[in-house]
Amino acid sequence: MSRGLEHVQNIGRANSLLAAEPAGWMETLGARIAQAEPGRVVLELVAGPQHRHGGGVVQGGVITQIADAAMGMSLATLQEDGMWNTTIELKINFIRPAIQGRLRAVGRVVEMRQTLLFSEADVFDDQDRLVARASSTCMPVPEGQGRE
Amino acid sequence: MSSQTEVVSPAWRWLGISLVELGEGNATVEMTPTDDMANHAGFVHGGMITALADSAMGRSLYTLNPGIVRAMSFDLKLSFISAGKVGEKLRATGRVVHAGRRTAVTECRVEAPGGRLVATASGTFAITRNKE
Prior knowledge:
Structural class of chain A: alpha+beta
Order of helices and strands of chain A: EHHEEHEEEE
Structural class of chain B: alpha+beta
Radius of gyration of chain A: 15 Å
Oligomer: heterodimer
Largest sheet of chain A: 7 strands, mixed
Largest interface: A-B, 15 and 13 residues
Radius of gyration of chain B: 14 Å
Helix content of chain B: 10-25%
Number of helices of chain A: 3
């Protein structure tokens, strides 16, 4: 549950996240947005050989990537149009190895403050086992900053 | 629930940490910060809140079955969300997220009266399982 500062429920943004075709890193990695509602965003990735390191399991950065994105997007669904966020700190625990199948990163908002935004994510495998747990602190920034 | 059988560590005694509630995989502890626990700004020092969260998470591991004979944190992470005030009772609830053979992952919420979120935490512990 999110508390703290009054914030918008940006349903329009949640819907446009859901409608958008994967582009950029999401396309490269093969990730997609499976669910989006204010305060909660779910990313999915079907893990294959292209995501594994030499040890034969999905590389931690791949898991971190979808967790980070799920967290950042969940925060964005509680921000006004014209504002987005950037991660300033992130921590993750890898709980069990993932090898293949659908990975789901469920990002949720913990708290929205004026200058700092807090979120968490759980990453599950296709048998709904907890693969990783992450938390992050983000900072609000104008949408589109640093792009083009 | 009874504190009669609870062996309180010197650190808990010194900080005034007490056990409030135990469940399977969770533990709630309380501490009322004193003037000695304030930082320069007059709020509760983050290290004090960290000690409370660490205690709640560590204690939650001892509620597992099969039992754990030793749990030592080797990684702690806190997010300080709102300031803790001196004299305002802090309640920390630690929960086991995952317990493996040698390590365990826990999480914690620290709340002030009225449920105001003061901090969230996660901790990783080296554990020793009870040999049947």
